[in-house]
């Protein structure tokens, strides 16, 4: 039942992006009583939070997998792999991300920190390979900036891209920008 309520909430979020449904709307959509909703969750915030945590986990997994694939690629291909993967992960969880973070960029920053933290050692590999001239502190600073820029670029492509924009071109431009930042640091 818990999974059914989460899946139903996800469906409602996808139907009406950036609008958190009420528990009554969830009960109606899931074909359960309002008491059933409250038996499993104290309120919609708890449901959204659980969906957000699942999204963060999935995004982290997708990003770590793409970073691992990118390690053996040429620099530009590696950047495209990472940008494509993160953009796709944000797109997959767009409904939850929109309702979770639309009003609070600081909260998105905190969620990104949840994703970024465990990946920092992997994220160091490409910059270290491309910039053997930099010391550890400079690499740490570069990784900090590049990871934030990557999150911003990918979330903009995934969540804010105008309908007439070419997704593949935006990913390619973003990858080139990130590579230039690493190489020019």
From TrEMBL:
Coiled-coil regions listed: none
DNA-binding region in chain numbering: 22-41
Highest taxon, organism lineage: Bacteria
Location of the HTH tetR-type domain: 1-59
Signal peptide: none
Keyword S-adenosyl-L-methionine (UniProt): no
Keyword Zinc found: no
Keywords for the protein's UniProt record, in alphabetical order: DNA-binding
InterPro entries membership: Homeodomain-like_sf (IPR009057), HTH_TetR (IPR001647)
UniProt name for this protein: TetR/AcrR family transcriptional regulator
């Amino acid at each position: 039942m818990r999974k059914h309520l989460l899946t139903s909430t996800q469906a409602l979020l996808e139907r009406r992006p950036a609008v958190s449904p009420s528990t009554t709307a969830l009960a109606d959509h899931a074909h359960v009583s309002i008491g059933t909703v409250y038996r499993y969750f104290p309120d919609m915030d708890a449901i959204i939070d659980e969906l957000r945590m699942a999204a963060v986990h999935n995004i982290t997994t997708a990003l770590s997998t793409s970073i691992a694939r990118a390690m053996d690629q040429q620099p530009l291909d590696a950047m495209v792999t990472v940008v494509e993967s993160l953009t796709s992960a944000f797109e997959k969880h767009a409904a939850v991300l929109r309702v979770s973070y639309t009003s609070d960029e600081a909260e998105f920053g905190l969620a990104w920190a949840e994703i970024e933290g465990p990946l920092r050692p992997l994220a160091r590999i490409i910059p270290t390979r491309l910039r053997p001239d930099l010391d550890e502190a400079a690499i740490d600073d570069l990784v900090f900036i590049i990871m934030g820029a990557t999150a911003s670029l990918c979330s903009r492509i995934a969540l804010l891209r105008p309908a007439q924009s070419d997704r593949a071109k935006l990913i390619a431009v973003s990858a080139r920008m990130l590579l230039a930042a690493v190489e020019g640091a």
